[in-house]
Amino acid sequence: MNTYISIIIPLYNRAGLIGRAIKSVLRQTHANFELLIVDDGSSDEPASIIQSFADKRIRYIRQSRGGVSAARNRGVTESRYPLIAFLDSDDEWLPNKLERQYTLMRDNNAVRICYTGESWIRNGNPFPHRKSEQKFSGAIFRQCLNDCFIGCSTVMMEKALFMRAGMFSLDFPVCEDYDLWLRIATRSKIYYINEPLILKYGGHDDQLSRQYWGLDRYRIEAIRRILASGILTDQQRRQAFDILLKKCAIVVGGSLKRKRYDAFSLYFSIWRAQNLLEQLS
């Protein structure tokens, strides 16, 4: 196995945070890597901060604003090596993160993708997060349907697997990782390393998940697409139908609570149509 890893950091207006993320990469005990920082049209001029590290392993790529998925995809497209890892610009790796994942994949040919645990930090203090407690390993398509418990910053995978799965979808403003993990979980087992190897910082005002109501709306769309793809087994199809109906019911209730009647009408119609299809299948 090639010992080199391509690391991709998408960046948008986080000049004050990117230095911490870069330092955590440069401290890795597995030093064979390239670091691609894809600046997605930032206006806070992060280039000088990035260039101050003067490390030949760092590649700075600037593009017009396209969103986090476009930035990650660009990084993978520009990458040189068969293994890839993602790091969000506001997160931080512990020094042995790459080494632990690389060793697992090197010693086990069946492992094409793996992820790790994380520790959550808010306002400078550790805090318990439900996503730190809900982790699964192996054939986990059913578990991936329920929620997104795999953080992008925890993942290492084969570049070929990422490309075959279709990369990140560009039309998901949020839950793009949920959508990708679903598609990968139909093709591959996903392995979990039960160690908190990243520090994840929550509570930023610019976090995308805080800017959109009803994240299950995007998960519903991801499930509908994978149901229409024709790649699911009969068992996976039944599991997807079941979770789709449950998520539609949740969004219908949330739409009424927020008096979003157009959304209520849409998701009630989806729920009714999918319920009928389930009964007929």
Automatic annotation (TrEMBL):
It comes from the Bacteria. One of its GO terms (molecular function) is hexosyltransferase activity. It comes from Candidatus Auribacter fodinae. Residues 6-161 form the Glycosyltransferase 2-like domain. This is Glycosyltransferase family 2 protein. Pfam families: Glycos_transf_2 (PF00535). Keywords: Transferase. SUPFAM superfamilies: Nucleotide-diphospho-sugar transferases.
